[in-house]
Amino acid sequence: MERHPVEAGVPQGSPVLPIILAIYTAELMKSFKEYVSEAEGLFFGDVLSRVARGSDVNHVVSILERCAAKSTEWASRRVRQFDTAKTEAALFTRRRGHK
Contact, 13 vs 19, CB < 8 A? Predict the structure, then answer.
């Protein structure tokens, strides 16, 4: 039988969403711990976030780039994709006046 695209989901705000998301991404979270141990994972509803600490901006960027590569690889093996247009980065520093 031919493959056909299917669009399915859970309504936003559904109380089952965090549970389904945790089950669905459990393998991804495990592979992150093995492949990118310097980053921590956080869930905000249906958003997966990665937090990394480093000695400088370039170090943090390299960690987050490895996270992105692992996420993309994981998704492609499952015929899924992430909406990379929604990808954002925030840098928090203790240095005041740093631009």
Answer: no
* CB-neighbour burial class of residue 60 (10 A; exposed 0-12, middle 13-18, buried 19+): buried
Give 3-state DSSP helix, strand, coil % of the chain, rounded to 5.
45, 10, 45
24: tokens are: 């669905």
The secondary structure element, H or E, covering residue 25 is helix 17-35
Centroid of chain to Cα 28: 9
**Cβ–Cβ < 8 Å for 69, 77:** no
Supply φ then ψ for residue 16, to 5 degrees: -85, -15
pTM: 0.61
Binned at pLDDT 50, 70 and 90, residue 46 comes out as low
DSSP at 97: T
